[in-house]
Amino acid sequence: MSQVKNPRVHAEILPALAAVAAPTTKVLAIGSVTAKGTPEAIAPVLPFEVRATVRNHLAGKIDQWFFQSEGYGVVFIMNVTSTAEAHEILEKLPLGVAGMMEFELIALGPLKPLAMLIGEPPRA
Q1: Which of 28, 29, 46, 100 could anchor a disulfide with 76, C-beta 3.0 to 4.6 Å?
Q2: Tens digit of pLDDT for each residue in 4-30?
Q3: d(CA 26, CA 109)
Q4: How far is it, in rounded angstroms, from Cα 43 to Cα 52?
Q5: Is residue 2 part of a domain?
Q6: What is the 8-class DSSP label of residue 5?
Q7: What's the CA gap between 26 and 110, in Å, rounded?
Q8: What is the DSSP letter of 68?
């Protein structure tokens, strides 16, 4: 997985946020169908995809799952502590193995600005 600079990171705007340590507690995984994922190609794989997704839900790795209302793909909120862990799980799903689904992964954690509001000193 490449280390592309995340346009959502605002450390340049609020440098004090960079000093506040907060663990990753969830990962938002936004799935998009690739060009290989035609309806004809996805149809026979979908039952396997659903079973694998349910197994990950029952194992506690996928906390919530949604279908994109505007678009075509899924959104998972995952109980993992890194995007690398999420990527490892998601690339093993049948649509990922077949190259028909890819994910944008966004690490989530506690709301860091709250530490500044309550006067907590930055932790490194």
Answers
A1: 29
A2: 566 666 556 566 666 667 788 999 999
A3: 6
A4: 15
A5: no
A6: P
A7: 10
A8: -
- Sequence letter at residue 80: V
Provide the β-strand partners of residue 106.
28
* Tens of pLDDT, residues 64-102: 999 998 877 899 999 999 999 999 999 999 999 999 999
pLDDT at residue 124, as a whole number: 58
Is 91 within 8 Å of 58 (Cβ atoms)?
A: no
Secondary structure letter of residue 14 according to DSSP = -
Q: How far apart are CA 10 and CA 112, in angstroms?
A: 12
Residue 46 lies in a domain: yes
CA distances from 47 to 38, 59, 115, 118, 124 (A): 15, 18, 45, 49, 45
12 within some domain:
no
* Alpha-carbon distances, residue 105 vs 13, 47, 52 (angstroms): 22, 24, 19
Residues 17 and 15: their CA atoms lie apart, in Å, by 5
The reply to whether the predicted model has a pTM over 0.90 is no
